[in-house]
Specification:
Largest sheet of chain B: 4 strands, mixed
Number of domains of chain B: 2
Structural class of chain B: alpha+beta
Oligomer: heterodimer
Mean pLDDT of chain B: 73
Number of strands of chain A: 0
Protein name (chain A): Stage III sporulation protein AD
Strand content of chain A: under 5%
Low-confidence stretches of chain B: 159-166, 181-201
Keywords (chain A): Membrane, Transmembrane, Transmembrane helix
Pfam families (chain A): SpoIIIAC
Number of helices of chain A: 4
InterPro entries (chain A): Spore_III_AC/AD (IPR025664), Spore_III_AD (IPR014211)
Keywords (chain B): Membrane, Transmembrane, Transmembrane helix
Radius of gyration of chain A: 21 Å
Number of domains of chain A: 2
Helix content of chain B: 55-70%
Structural class of chain A: mainly alpha
Radius of gyration of chain B: 40 Å
Chain lengths: ~130, ~240
Amino acid sequence: MEIIQIVGLGLIATILIIVVREQKPLFAFLLTAFTGLFIFIFLIGKIDSVIKVLEDLANRSGIPSIYLKTILKIIGIAYIVEFGAQIVRDAGQESIASRIEFAGKVLILVMAVPIISVIVETVIGLLPAGS
Amino acid sequence: MIAWLSDWLRDIIAVIMLAAFVELLLPNKAMLRYSRLVIGLLILLTIMSPILRLLQGDFNAKLKDGITHWDQLEAQREVKMPTLSDIQKKADELNKQQDSDAAALMEQTLESAMKDAVFKQTEQPVEAVEVTLGWEKQGQKMTPYVNAVLVTLTAVKKESDAAQAPNEDDVKEVTAIQVDINAKTEAGGTDSQQTDSGKEGQGEGWIQADPSASKEIRNLLAEGWGISPGNIQVRQRDNRN
């Protein structure tokens, strides 16, 4: 019954934050950040089982391990970026949050570079054969 | 043929299922477009794999090479980041170099200033003034002080005029720094007995300067720069060798 724990934690944290926010906004922010961090770390272990399923699927179907590695990297980057950007956004720094998301997008696109290069090479190799 | 076709279809289905899974797992919409691009490329690669294999042989190896190459690029970039201790070490080295440069510059200015002053005040023909700086600790910083001064007077012309040719040899001896260091330790001793000639104690090519002139120079330097007279040595070029 982890969902009850997590929702309970979230509710308690929210009430505490509302109480504290009037007196000390800084502590309210810290409380927000730590609650988010705790839930994130708590759930990152659960994602592990999903990833195992994915690995199993990949192994059984015989797709190259490099595909799976790329996809898992994308998921990891997306989660970390989302987490960091959300905390920064809670602190009110919208511009820094959007920079973090931008960095995540760039890193995901970097993953695509080797794939694109292979496809482009193939297309270029196709052209003289076709003409 | 059927087996190969079923392999290919199974690959495509697996990759598409993987893609669907990933879209479910992705945390927000902002990343969705970008990850969709990469996953779409992967699906394209899987669908095209028979053509690719036909054209390029083992394209998977090439792909793997490309990805590891990118990974290595990133790793190298990380390695090149200098640590704080490296930066501090470099800063220390630069500080030391700057200090020694400043000390050398100070020696030069002191030398030229002393030379001018001695020439103006005593009208002795000064050939060179060598200043050796020492370092002493004052609180946190090392501060320089004048350790030893060596005044060289030019040779007395009237004795003989054969001094021109071997001059170059003598110049080399001036550059030997050991002379200065010895002079510093022996300075007190030679000072007290400066009235007798002491030609052997001065090393090769040098003779003791005229006592009255050397005393005058010594007093001048001691007054002008606050150097203790024991650290000042005056010598004269010997024109007989």
